[in-house]
Amino acid sequence: MKPGINALIFATVFLCAGVSHTAFAAPAEAKAQVGQKAPQTPPAAAKTTAPADAPTGEASKVSINSASAEELAHAMNGVGLKKAQAIVSYREEYGPFKTLDDLRQVPGLGSALVERNLAHLML
């Protein structure tokens, strides 16, 4: 066989072996429980139950038109108090946001940062 084809086959086998290894790896919870008693609740039930302090659904979303800078900084990933204050200042100067995509107009907020936080925001 040609060297290029051999390299391609080798890379494919290597990739498949790595993927199958990670597919069968135990989750971190299971690794932590090795050598301990079995948990009181079945793992499937434990995964579906959200922690008490973790917000879910609409309640977890923050309004970009009414939230304070502190609330925005807490809710948004990658946004500190300074960027959150820029959002509030922009809102006070230009009026309420009409769409979530309007956040891209705020100085210091890029498209990637806005995209990453859309699930945490509402109007």
From TrEMBL:
Cross-referenced Pfam families: HHH_3
Biased composition (Low complexity): 36-56
SUPFAM superfamilies: RuvA domain 2-like (SSF47781)
Keyword field contains Lyase: no
GO CC annotations on file: type II protein secretion system complex
GO biological process: protein secretion by the type II secretion system
InterPro entries to which the protein is assigned, alphabetical: Competence_ComEA_HhH, Endo/Exo/Phosphatase_dom_1, RuvA_2-like
Keywords: Repeat, Signal
Signal peptide location: 1-25
Annotated region (Disordered), positions in chain: 30-63
Name the record gives this protein: Uncharacterized protein YbaV
